[in-house]
Design a protein that fits this description.
Blueprint (H helix, E strand, L loop, with lengths): L1 H23 L33 E18 L6 E2 L2 E2 L9 E2 L3 E11 L2 E10 L7 E9 L8 H6 L3 E9 L31 E9 L5 E8 L26 E11 L4 E12 L44 E13 L2 E13 L7 E14 L6 E13 L6 E16 L2 E13 L11 E12 L1
Antiparallel strand pairs: 1-4, 1-5, 1-19, 2-3, 5-6, 6-7, 7-8, 8-9, 9-10, 10-11, 11-12, 12-13, 13-14, 14-15, 15-16, 16-17, 17-18, 18-19
């Protein structure tokens, strides 16, 4: 059965390539849309610039493909822990080689004037062996069916999004790699604590022309929703667990002062007071691009798909905020993150704190074209493990270079070093470190 699934996936991918490249030359523009190529760089929330006239319903089929070549090595000094005759703290032996290719299918439709739909499917990824739907949503930038001049005027500054969508918490998720979609990321991987989740709900945006940004959203707080009542007791309340809605919001300022200078700063929050299993920091269903880094000899690509990342396990309760400044002056880009999150699992009596910060420095050249870049990132996370009072720290340093071969094709390479500090001697990450190079080719259209 597994072989037939893989055979079907190969046929699907080949068909997608054939169909997609045949329509690339005739891709029609869609309103309020972020392009899946170089022209989508440094796009955060879609703007209210109505530059595409509505001429009827349109369907746009696109895709993303990413292939990595990995040259990583790792080490630790953890005390052996023998389980069924196997040392669970022995790291796997890594060699240089190609990782599993990842692919996304993107379907976008212009349903009516100012009404757009998106559906994204993960066709091939590290975590799932078969195709999975990422999510789908409808975005309203106009409400023509009301036939009201007053509503039309109001909607010039508002956007409404509803569906199973990528939660707009922070700005980093607009720059991360998402399975086969690595076109916006100047690096190969995402943050150590990766803020990404798809949840069912809605968001309302207010973005007048003066550069102000405001958003308020409500969701179910779950990646995998359920209608079955909980049988688990919450340690804090002593009662059966209940599932409350999650709230998130953003306030910021984004302005292009002149041709050379753009400045943006936003603050975001996300709050879920009680959940069946919240996955704001564990919602990626595709997996890390650092295959098997710091994983033991029994690890599998599916069950250990998030190598190099850290899940704080705030599954029961989470409250978090993030600040993101962004400056682009000519070819120089600075993007920063400061994040503080608190949360717990259902058996914990108190919340724990996780603090993360990161800085990206990117220089794109030559001027005007900006087809090449060099960059660096420093990312650090300090937190405590569940039911443990000792702080642990994970630090990552990355150097990157890249080339937009065309607006749809990129080639990038990086050298990464990541260190694990203050983990218990019996933890596989004790004295842990991995480093090495990554080469990545990616297509987006």
């Amino acid at each position: 059965m597994k072989n037939s699934n893989k055979h079907f996936l190969r046929i699907t991918l080949m068909a997608m390539v054939a169909v997609s490249f045949s329509v690339m030359a005739q891709q029609t523009p869609i309103q309020y849309f972020r392009p899946n190529d170089k022209t989508g760089l440094n796009t955060f929330e879609t703007s209210k610039n109505d530059t595409t006239p509505f001429t009827g319903m349109k369907l746009r089929i696109g895709g993303n493909f990413t292939q990595d070549f990995q040259g990583l090595s790792h080490e630790n000094n953890a005390t052996p822990v023998i389980i069924n005759g196997v040392n669970a703290n022995q790291l796997s032996s890594l060699i240089n080689g190609f990782n599993l290719a990842m692919a996304n299918l993107n379907i976008d439709a212009q349903l009516d004037d100012g009404i757009r739909m998106n559906l994204t499917v993960y066709l091939s990824s590290r975590h799932h062996e078969e195709a999975w739907v990422k999510g789908g949503y409808i975005q309203f930038d106009k409400l023509p069916f009301f036939k009201s001049d007053m509503i039309d005027h109001i909607m010039k500054s508002f956007t409404v999004k509803v569906g199973d969508y990528e939660v707009d918490y922070g700005d980093q998720h607009f720059r991360r790699s998402d399975g086969g979609n690595a076109i916006y990321n100047p690096f190969v991987e995402n943050y150590i604590m990766d803020e990404f989740a798809t949840e069912i709900g809605g968001e309302i945006y207010y973005h007048p022309k003066n550069g102000l940004i405001a958003m308020l959203g409500i969701s179910n707080g779950e990646l995998n929703p359920t209608v079955v009542a909980s049988t688990k007791i919450d340690t804090v309340t002593g009662k059966l667990d209940t599932y409350s809605p999650a709230f998130h919001g953003k306030l910021g300022y984004d302005r292009q002062f002149n041709k050379d200078l753009r400045f943006r700063i936003t603050g975001s929050f996300y709050i879920d007071k009680s959940a069946a299993s919240n996955t704001l920091f564990f919602g990626d269903r595709t997996g890390s691009h650092y295959f098997f880094a710091m994983e033991n000899t029994t690890a599998t690509s599916v069950n250990n798909a998030w190598s190099g990342r850290y899940n704080p396990q705030f599954s029961q309760q989470v409250s978090t905020f993030m600040i993101n400044p962004f400056v682009k002056y000519k070819g120089l880009e600075l993007f920063g993150t400061y994040e503080m999150a608190q949360g717990r699992i259902i058996t914990e009596p108190d919340t724990r704190t996780a603090t993360q910060y990161a800085l990206d420095v990117i220089y794109r050249f030559p001027r005007e074209k900006e087809n090449f870049w060099v960059g660096g990132r420093y990312n650090s996370l300090t937190t405590t493990l569940p039911l443990n009072s000792n702080d642990i720290t994970i630090n990552r340093s990355v150097g990157s270079f890249g080339w937009f071969v065309t607006k749809n094709m990129i080639l990038k390479g990086e050298y990464v070093t990541q260190q694990y500090n203050n983990f218990a001697a019996t933890d596989i990450r004790s004295g842990g470190k991995f480093n090495g190079f990554m080469i990545e080719a990616s297509i987006g259209f």
